[in-house]
Fold this sequence. Notes:
- By secondary structure, this protein is α/β, with parallel strands linked by helices.
- The chain is built from twelve helices and 14 strands.
- It has two domains: 2-178 and 211-238, Rossmann fold, CATH 3.40.50.720; 187-210 and 243-274 and 294-341, UDP-galactose 4-epimerase, domain 1.
- Strands 3-2-1-4-5-6-11 form a seven-stranded parallel β-sheet, with helices on both faces. It has a three-stranded mixed β-sheet with strand order 8-13-14, sandwiched between helices.
- The mean pLDDT is 97.
- Bound molecules: nicotinamide-adenine-dinucleotide and thymidine-5'-diphosphate.
- Nicotinamide-adenine-dinucleotide (NAD) binds next to α1, α4 and β5.
Amino acid sequence: MRILVTGAAGFIGSNYVRYVLTEHPMDRVVALDKLTYAGNPANLAEFDGDPRYHFVHADICDAEAVGEALAGCDALVNFAAESHVDRSVMDPAAFVKTNVEGIRVLMEAARTHDVRRIVQVSTDEVYGHVPIGAAGEDARLAPRNPYSASKAGGELLALSYFTSFDLPVMVTRGANTIGPYQYPEKVVPVFVTNAMESEPLPIYGEGTAVRNYMHVADHCAGIDLVLRSGEPGAIFNVGVEFEVNTVTLATSILELLEKPRSLMRLIADRPGHDYRYSLDSSRLESLGWQPRYAFAEALAATVNWYVENEEWWRPIKSGSFRAYYERNYAARLANSRPVEAT
Ligand code: NAD
Ligand code: TYD
């Protein structure tokens, strides 16, 4: 199979390229990426010179470039997105452009080429806050921030190409993902790299928001199973059951790094904060998917990777990331509170 992987230089995309070329050594990958602040050629450097791999520097909104990259491909897996909630609250425009218009361009290109399998990678955030129970794929979509709303728009547009044009589209809705090469704006790499530098860990609100953190290898395996075995037109949740709140997450990271609890700081909450996500992934499990990593293993492996790969994250944190960090955190940290001992 020859697969066009868009958004391939980001966190999950680059891990997916690695997954495919390891698990399916006869496959070919065309990796396309705009290389925004979140895209990093270093994430894919190990494949330079591999005859099974080809990189295209392009925007998914560029119809001509997408058409050229898709020519000769059997499958498309789209990871390309503006992916961070806090940035979407600051400036939603790029989210609508890439996460909705970009999908239209990809689907139009897929119509004119003989693409047999298409996966649009979406998120559990499209369900919005889930106060109790677990969301199945038929649960109501109720996104509450510009990121999740744009992802919901993008996946619905992709699915409309299945019903309107018979395009073999499938959608995955993944839970929070952790592991190597995650840009240090998401909570786990922010906390790990800050802790390593003995900087404060900024915890939103009271630190009670709950997430299900899944190792990126498990997420990639789920997406790949959907690509190869999913029914066209179907949606698949990809998530683990274990729930952890932000204070517990921070505490675990500090313990792994042997750093003091005093680094935890409660700061003003994220606007529209979804306090809980939870997925029922039994549909994907019925295809044979099971997560391999327990939460503690996934977190320990992730922390270890950041400890061993400082040369990957230090240049990112000292560059343009600094301006974002100041804008998002500086004033809130100046008015922060400690976490009381429990
Ligand atoms: P990321 O921000 O690390 O990577 C996104 C990649 O897309 C980057 O390489 C970026 O350069 C590229 N990109 C952005 N705009 C582009 C455009 N217009 N054209 C081409 N490339 C473009 O994100 P990630 O965490 O790897 O997430 C990948 C996908 O998985 C996203 O669609 C996201 O919504 C989804 N997802 C992420 C998580 C998570 O926890 N990280 C969970 C569920 C779903
Ligand atoms: P995040 O990694 O942004 O993912 P999501 O898109 O699921 O919100 O945040 C995960 C959780 O961690 C969420 O409840 C918000 C919280 N959080 C903090 O408390 N501090 C931070 O600096 C960040 C980035 C997130």
